[in-house]
Structure formats: structure tokens, C-alpha cells
Amino acid sequence: MDGIVYQAIIGGVVSLLLSIIAYFLHLLIQDIRYMKLEQHKLGHLCIKLRSEQEFIRKWLKKVIIKGSETLRKST
Q1: How far apart (Å, rounded) are the C-alpha atoms in residues 27 and 23?
Q2: Torsions phi, psi of 52, nearest 5?
Q3: 16-44 pLDDT tens trace
Q4: Alpha carbon distance 48, 54 (integer Å)
Q5: Is the pTM of this model over 0.85?
Q6: Handedness of CA 28, 30, 36, 41 (dihedral sign)
């Protein structure tokens, strides 16, 4: 009788531990999916920022060129 009780207790403990592991794996998978989504958003944001930076760089070059031409004409 004692062997059956120990087996039942050990089986219950193993079942509990496996349930806890499964729960944490579920949370880990959710976090990985969330991180992929955030990484995707960040990638789009970086592309947008690069294009805006390029636009500003071109605009500043035009302003600098026009400013230097204005200075040449006035001298």
C-alpha cells in the first residue's frame, strides 16, 4: 500500500511541475510573438526616419547652395 501512495504523490508532483513548465513556455511564446511584432514596427519606423533624414539632408544642401549664391551676388 505504501508503494502505491508514494507513486501517486510522485505522479502528482511530476504532473504539477509539468503544468508549471507548460505555463511558463506559453508565456515565453507570447513574449516572443510580441517582440516580433514590436521589431516589425521598429523596422518600419527606421525606414521612415531614414527617408526623412535624406529629405532633410537634400533640403539643407539646397538652402546652403542658395545662401552661398546670395552671398556671391551681394559681394
Answers
A1: 6
A2: -65, -40
A3: 999 999 999 999 999 999 999 999 999 99
A4: 10
A5: no
A6: negative
